[in-house]
Structures are given as structure tokens and as C-alpha cells.
Amino acid sequence: PVTDGSRELHSLCAQLEFLLQFDLKEKRSLFGQRKDYWDFLCQGLARCRQEHEGVRFVTSLDKLKTPVGRGRAFLRYCLVHQQLAESLQLCLLDPENLCEWYYARSPFLSPQHRVEILGSLYELDSVTFHLAL
Q1: The domain defined by 2-127 carries CATH number 3.30.70.20
Q2: Domain RUN: where (predicted)?
């Protein structure tokens, strides 16, 4: 199993975060706080489901104060529960929402890149992650 001490884990998480932040439009909350991929994921999942367990878990963690911290915790939660590909796929279903959050260079806006990314993430479902949440 992959644990917190794994170099590959840190590389994977850094790459996932880069991918989710690449060409992300700058958006701000009502109070001026910069929105990040966490906000994109929450909005995308809220449109598709009642409530995602990962979102509920992350929002219950009082220590997490920033969207980036919440996003990182969500990625870890999804890796442990083998839900990353499915969760991201749900967020990528709505083209209007994608265009609202990402500029044209984002790989999420390319159907071919989207398929490749999701295919790779679904392969991660066969990997066991034992991470501190």
C-alpha cells in the first residue's frame, strides 16, 4: 500500500494539484477570498449528487482554513476511498461549468485529454492508499 511516507504519493498529489489549478480562472468569494479547485469540485459535485462524503468529511475538519488545504484533504480522502476518478468525472460532465471555471488551455476542456486523465485516475482505483486523513 501507498503511505504518507511515499515519494510517489507526494509527486502524484503535486501533479494532481497542478492539473486542477492549470488555467483555472481567478474567482473570488463574496468576502474576497480567492477560490481554488476545491470550490470547483464542490460546485461540480453539488450539481450531480445529494452530498459527497468526501466534501462532508473535509468541511467537518476545523483545522483546514484555506481552499487549497481543503482541496488537498479531498484528494487524499478520494485516494483512500478509491473515489478520485469518479468524483472528478462527475465534475467534468457539465461543459458550461467547466468553461465557467477554466480557460481554454485547460486539459479538462479537451475531450481527448479528459478521457486520458480519467483513464489514468481510474487505474489508481487498483492501488491501496493508507493515508492519514
Answers
A1: no
A2: 3-133
